[in-house]
UniProtKB/TrEMBL annotation:
<dbReference type="InterPro" id="IPR008313">
    <property type="entry name" value="GH125"/>
</dbReference>
<dbReference type="InterPro" id="IPR008928">
    <property type="entry name" value="6-hairpin_glycosidase_sf"/>
</dbReference>
<protein>
    <recommendedName>
        <fullName>Metal-independent alpha-mannosidase</fullName>
    </recommendedName>
</protein>
<dbReference type="Pfam" id="PF06824">
    <property type="entry name" value="Glyco_hydro_125"/>
</dbReference>
<dbReference type="InterPro" id="IPR012341">
    <property type="entry name" value="6hp_glycosidase-like_sf"/>
</dbReference>
Amino acid sequence: MTGIDADVLARAAEEVRRATGDQVIADMFQRSMADNLPAVAERRPDGTTFVLTGDIPAMWLRDSAAQLRPYLVLCGDDPGLQDVLIGVLHRQLEYIVIDPYANAFNREATGEGHTTDETEMSPWVWERKYEIDSLCYPLELAYRLWRITGREDVIDDRFRAAADAILELWTVELDHEARSAYRFQRHDEEPTDTLVREGRGRLTTPTGMSWSAFRPSDDATEHGFNVPGNMFASVVLGYVQAIASEVLRDESLAARAKELKAGIDEGIALYGVVEHPTFGRVYAYEVDGAGERLLMDDANMPSLLSLPMTGFAAADDPTYLATRSLLLSPENPYYYSGTHASGIGSPHTPLSHVWPIALAVQGLTSTSAEERQQLLELLRDTTGGTGQMHESFHCDDPTVFTREWFSWANAMFCELALAHAGRTL
């Protein structure tokens, strides 16, 4: 079994119904939670769990963890579900050791995927777009499962090996120009699918932050240092430090995590904060260390909007609130407003397309119960008649959308519904 216990889910759905006063939202929640995980999760003979990313026969490190967030909220009462989630974590950790630069992996070493990319591919790797956040999500999942379940089988030698690989990579990528051997080129595709300068990416100068080739959207970074990705890395390095000290009794690993976190935090403070003439002190989305900076946000997590969810800033932090005001305004080039919806989209999808993920994040980071309710109702009303969340939809016509079914977006809707009912991570 790869799903959630029916009684646990029924109780949660009733909590959602009472909180929202809306049977349709409660039914959408219950259906998504019942169907989402079994549709993508496959228990393997070795005890690990392989998770498909939507309709693609591969497992993305980021998506496979993000899809689990609402199940983490409820897994404390469901030991069978805990087994499935721990199995996901253990497979992720094994993948990371194979290639920490890869973002998506095959079920077996079949050699399927983007085989014509110019990079160091392995038969296990489906795609090798390096994204800093792809390494953050498994570390967060490990920490949350450890804290929520208290089970000794969450953290084992696989965690130690993966954490070592991640810290080594993030340290190398502090100075991508001088130290990194990573290269990536994809020919005859969109410009956002490849790196310039023969696969090295645009020129950067060290900042204290760790370089990333691609964003959470899988689009190439413009300036190398993705600020929300580094913020997430800072948070999970704190998790590594805690696990290394309290579980593994490995003070060397804990000290390495602490030192790297301190340097990234300093880099964010020095380079990732901008004084905006209208909004004041705000966070940039990307910087290059040589004066270039990008003020925007993307719908994909980790985003600047999602900082309270990733744990870097409180929802009432003044700099976060100023940044949030900028992001939810025309100053963000990917904020779209139409007759049916207003919200954040992405250069990854067509113009004027709002992402349900971003709407859910907006609700999950809001301090207003009224705003959460409004956003749940908006998500309910913009499925284009399918009853499912999409990757994106046109802000003037929800029947125009990308990806009819998107597991990650369904999970985010469910997490928002649970949060509105008082159940949070």
